[in-house]
Give the backbone structure.
Amino acid sequence: MKYALIGCGRISPNHIEAAKNNCLDFVAMCDIKPEIMQEKSEKFDLKSIRQYTDYKELLEKEQPELVAIATESGNHAKIALDCIAAGSNVIIEKPIALSLADADEIIKAGREKDVVVCANHQNRFNKSIQYIRKALEEGRFGKLSHGAAHIRWNRGKGYYDQAPWRGTWAMDGGCLMNQCIHNIDLLRWMMGDEIEEVMAYTDQLEHPYLEAEDLGLALVKFKNGSYGLIEGTTNIYPKNLEETLYIFGEKGTAKAAGTSDNIIEEWRFADGLDDPEEVKAKFRENPPNVYGFGHTPLYADVIDAIQNHREPKVDGEAGKRALELVLAIYKSAAEHRPVKLPLENCSTLDFVGRFGKSEN
């Protein structure tokens, strides 16, 4: 299966390794900075892979069957639509887009062209998360009470200086959209997906050079009667502290933690079907960085979905739901009121000037 990567920045090594691990025919990569492509080419032994600075030229000349899009968030939608129009299946890094209209357009285009659209929420494939999800689907938690997602990380000025698009409303959003959306996706997925309303605060406390938030606090009311708590920040001193996910039910309690929810720290169930200490000992996989090990199994699922003409496990709709929840938090905080879901016609651009900043 011919594969190409568009965007060779911070997250690209995970995509490169996933493509190699799944034995894809890696034919080309694209970035507007040739030196970044050259660095990746040398580091990952990709010297035979053709390099492009124009992704449209890549699509025309290479005609890849599968394209991963790992560019600035604000460019995800346009590039995805061009790839789909060219007949390529796509893996789109989070977030799938920065507006609900763009997300809808991507989903619609994928269906019309009969190609697979995958939102790259790789943490769903963590072994720990898969085990929790299995218990949930088997009804072991009983009636869900509430869940909580905590993302307590650090991002300093050096991180933002590396890429001026970060923290802008036009190309990124704040910590919730960039750093926290993976755990926000997991919370929504675990707690039943369907949301009634959201109440939230966001603020910018320690990053005055950004346009968007560095702290978000939200309460989510799900339609099944359960609740969700979200705490996301990039203000933790002096470095990343944790990413945790709690699921509480009438008959079960689970906690995933570690660098990117790869460790099961709590496992308590009334049914006694497994030994908590054995479960915690088994699920101790802690990756070297926050990106985890989920890209390779996500790629494997997408390849299987393409070959068997089915939807991937993390499809465009899943990407839209994660995006929608972040936008609902932004809207609730900006308007100082509860926000009902589903949202309509909401975009990060709706919040330009929220913290006294405007586009450069």
Observations:
- The domain at 126-286+321-351 is CATH 3.30.360.10 (Dihydrodipicolinate Reductase; domain 2).
